[in-house]
Write a structure and sequence with these properties.
The protein is α/β, with parallel strands linked by helices and 320 residues long. The relative contact order is 0.13. It folds into two domains: 9-64, no CATH class; 70-252 and 309-315, Vaccinia Virus protein VP39 (Rossmann fold, 3-Layer(aba) Sandwich). The longest helix has 21 residues, at 82-102. It starts with 8 loop residues before the first strand and ends in a 5-residue tail after the last strand. It has ten helices and 13 strands. The protein has a seven-stranded mixed β-sheet, with helices on both faces. The chain has helices at 58-61, 82-102, 117-125, 137-147, 181-191, 208-213, 231-241, 255-266, 274-285, 287-302; strands at residues 9-10, 22-28, 39-44, 50-52, 55-56, 106-111, 128-134, 151-153, 166-172, 192-203, 227-228, 243-249, 308-315.
Length: 320
């Protein structure tokens, strides 16, 4: 179906249980980039998985990933300030360490690699043979040229890959963007070697931010996030596929995602109290706020209550 903005929509079924019955949780606009449309998040009546219903077809949804989308930060490895490089790359260092805590080296595939910030970090470590998948043609071309590693341009479901070829597959903030997440998780399983590991991060529906900010929570990110998974349901999905040895941990400290939630929540102030909104946002972006929030956010990380959660699951070794 097509709306008055020329956007084309499709109806969906639940990615886990396959039912169509759902209840509206909330509706909202594209708060991150302000592009047109009103979008709907629903909860499956049978299993509780949250999804967009209806959702844009991919040809139209792809236009909601503009050139300044966060994953397409082309200058990430070219900053002159060593301190700024260190701060911007710290999240990738933490992700690499999380991966190497479970799998120390080998062949690694990143799905949705953007402009290669994480792949750059793994290449620097010298432990990995890496390749990536990226649907955005410009980002894929840039990353391949910058790192000199294989980058497959296309959607994960469309790229031809050899089964049982990888020791590790990573999807950082990607699962929620996939139109067929159950099929893609199964494909990850088939691409891993026996004993290989799948690592991914996703919006943490059980986070404090989800409860406090409600429809303004950055984890929804309409219309780019197609699914949000309660963790108990996700564990059932992963076990059903055949994964074992699950590890869950918040490792991001979520300063930026908390900032997005505050920004989205304060958007309603813009017309009546623009100055108050700007004061709030400037205060949050200050070094004083960043330092003051460091300890509380680290504590929330330890309690697995920040906005993004990182999960590791193993393809059970055949000898087991």
């Amino acid at each position: 179906m097509t709306d008055m903005n020329g956007l084309q929509w499709e109806h969906t079924t639940c990615a886990w249980c396959g039912t169509t019955a759902s209840d509206l949780v909330f509706k909202g606009p594209d708060r991150l980039h302000g592009l047109p449309g009103l979008f709907y998040f629903c909860r499956c009546r049978q299993c509780g998985v949250l999804r967009q219903e209806p959702r844009l077809i991919w040809e139209h949804l792809s236009t909601y990933y503009p050139y300044d989308y966060a994953a397409y930060a082309y200058n990430a490895g070219e900053m002159k300030s060593p301190l700024r490089q260190l701060i911007n790359n710290y999240g990738n260092v933490k992700r690499r360490r999380f991966v190497e805590k479970h799998q120390s080296s080998g062949r690694l595939l990143e799905v949705g690699c953007g402009t290669g910030a994480f792949l750059r970090e793994t290449v620097k470590s010298g432990r990995w043979e890496v390749e990536g998948i990226e649907p955005n043609r410009a980002a894929a071309t840039y990353t391949a040229k910058m790192l000199g590693v294989p980058i497959h341009q296309g959607r994960f479901s469309e790229v031809d890959l050899k089964p049982a070829a990888y020791d590790a597959i990573v999807l950082w903030c990607v699962l929620e963007h996939l139109s067929q997440p159950m099929q893609d998780l199964r494909r990850c399983y088939s691409l891993l070697k026996s004993g290989g590991w799948l690592f991914f991060s996703m919006p943490n529906y059980e986070s404090l931010g989800a409860k406090v900010f409600g429809p303004y929570w950055s984890g929804w990110d309409l219309p780019r996030h197609l699914y949000v998974f309660p963790r108990p349901v996700l564990r059932q999905m992963l076990t059903h596929i055949g994964f074992g040895h699950t590890s869950e941990q918040c490792i991001s400290t979520s300063y930026n995602t908390l900032g997005h939630s505050i920004e989205f929540w304060s958007q309603s102030w813009e017309s009546k109290y623009p100055r108050a909104r700007q004061i709030l946002l400037n205060a949050y972006r200050s070094w004083f706020a960043r330092i003051g929030l460091l300890l509380p956010l680290v504590l929330l990380d330890r309690l697995n209550l920040t906005t993004n959660i990182t999960i590791a699951v193993q393809k059970i070794p055949e000898s087991s």
